[in-house]
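Model it.
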Amino acid sequence: MPRTSRRRNIAPPREDVLAAVMATVAERGLDGLTMAGLGREVGMSSGHLLYYFRTKDELLLRTLEWSEARLGAERRALSAGPGTARERLDAHIALYVPDDHRDPHWTLRLEVWNRSQGAGDDARARQAAIEDAWHRDLTELLADGIARGEFRAVGAGRAATRLRALMDGFGVRVTVGIPGTGRQQVLDQLRTYVDETLTPPGAGTPAADVAPGF
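Modeled.
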């Protein structure tokens, strides 16, 4: 007598789950992301999701790491690509700045930052690795521009720290949706900052007008 076939609950590839998290955040925001809802989206029970990811905090961090890995590949391609150091720096900055207040990557990033206060050492180290990757690539890009004479002879690491702090601050404002801080306005501000602090005298472009109160 043939054995009765059983329906198995086969988990989807982990990347499919992480992509579903990003899609949900993009469409409905973090408030719309629940383990039960995500489970229905990918055909798993919330219990199975917790089996694979243990906690919602871990799920969010894994999703951020997955998204950062994709951005990291794009970032490194831009850094190693053709063009002047300034063109590659502008592309690096444009990749970093959020698209708008519904940018799912930045929404997730701010949530992980917020939750990191109570996170364990492993989670904090993984989050630091994300930040270190951006800092390292930006430092290398600036060092290349300094060696080529495109940027002023400044400390590349210190310049990267200051520029990233400014990018982070503006990124938060775009993500929060503060009026007058849209993506294009932020990019203009950052280009002006680079002109004023990194471009050698006589080699820059006129600073863009700054919107009142920005």
